[in-house]
Predict the 3D structure of the following.
Amino acid sequence: MNNEKLAMLKEKATLVRKGIIEGTHAAGCGHPGGSLSITDIVTYLYFAEMNIDVKNPKMANRDRFVMSKGHAAPALYSVLANRGFFPVEDLKTLRKTNSYLQGHPDMKGIPGVDMSTGSLGLGISAACGMALAAKINDESYRVYCAVGDGESEEGQVWEAAMFAAHYKLDNLTVFIDFNGLQIDGKVTDVMNPTPHDTKFEAFGWNVITIDGHNFEEIENAVNAAKACKGKPTAIIANTVKGKGVSFMEGKASWHGKAPNDDEYAIALTDLDK
Amino acid sequence: MAEKKATREAYGDALVEFGATNKNLVVLDADLAEATKTCKFKAAYPERFFDCGIAEGNMMAVAAGLAASGMVPFASSFAMFASGRAFEQVRNTIGYPHLNVKIGATHAGITVGEDGATHQCNEDIALMRTIPGMTIINPADAVEARAAVKAAIDFKGPVYMRFGRYAVPTFNNDSYEFEIGKGIELCDGKDVAIIATGLMVSMAMEAAEMLKEDGINARVINIHTIKPIDAEIIVKAARETGAIVTAEEHSIIGGLGSAVAEVLCEKCPVPMLRVGVEDKFGKSGQVPELLKEYGLTAENIAKKAKEAISLKLN
């Protein structure tokens, strides 16, 4: 990756993170922790990878993204807004009564959202359906999906894993956002879903493990997924919950809590560093 | 006696028939293709048939993804699993985004027979009725089942279709016309109206014949679309007859009886009684015996009709 591209992605990721803080702060609630952990991945996808048209969000042959961990809506909305699907200013209306920016992604009302999600384990199955449709119609688009590590405790994730391998959905790439934390604590303490790599391998997937905050590793993994034929790819992304905001990093308590005014100011200062 | 055919058979035949011209039509099943009769579509168009294995929740959300990508998926399983096991997937990934998924639920009600309570779904209409924007169709015979599949394909949005395992009389003929949400008056009468759905429709007509022998003129209405319900035909029947009986192969809680009661309470209260499965689980047995034990008979409909008439306020 050249320096120019890397600098662009870092700059965009900072803007996306600021949007997450703006949105959750204005809402007084929401999920900043898991939004900040998935930020670099969605930033890469929307700014460097996916074939999309902000003027035509429903373009038939577009690449799709499904935020299966739908509570990371602030990250999805922020990346969509910063990419130009709707005004960045609107992020401050997140979760408000008359806003289109629902607490969890709503494909009917939000430009650029490819699937309504929020109930965990469902989005990855829907992503399988999209990838299958491309296979049936011989279309070239690719489908990306982000699954939480806590989310992988849902049995349906593994039903979908079976399905994707069975139908050889090599146009499907799933990121596991392995930030290690869920609402009640460490994923390994609450209900250990690890190891993800050998599980997905056993289900017949191509598996790549990366640092989910390193754009070069994200890029290499995405390219490797595109080159892999006959199998879907799972990218196990080691991430930090709350990444980029000093007092949120590595804290399960920031799963579903908004920053107050003082914390908001500190967060924005952290992100400008 | 009319020819008998299970509505699931008609469902399988209709998928093949309409799949010929609708190239976006794809069929999903969860390891029950032989029973749901989607095996017919599988044989005709194997490239558009996808077995999802025994994983109904995944199947419903896969269907949502297919619909979001322009396909018209028919997702099939037994009513118990399509509406019960996968309720939340249907609600959140199909209902909430109002995606164009068609759910073909077979083996509804106690006429599943020998498999018993775990497979006899008497709650699916109740469950599906609570999902905003869900259309629910419960065909009465093979002709209506075929028409329902055609209408579901032409309709944009989620549709839950309920089919039976048991062969039932085919009473509609080739000139039959089906419109989603439009009830059908099968015979006129002024003393009482029997509002029936599914396999209870032909029994309702039998009941009307029995009542005629006792000098009672019963109106019979076929409500094939439970949601949106045809309030107009129900209110008209209440005004003109003053007594209503509903008949369904489903729990009396949450199904046709409840839907009709909701309409009557708000628009035209008259005495009404419900024939259906009375807040009980099913059990193993031969279908004719089960229908009798659970009161799903023409005789019971006629009995309830007389009771309803006796409750009229004069």
Q: What stands out?
A: Chain B has two domains: 4-169, 184-309. Chain B has a mean pLDDT of 97. The domain at 4-169 of chain B is CATH 3.40.50.970 (Rossmann fold). The longest strand of chain B covers residues 244-251.
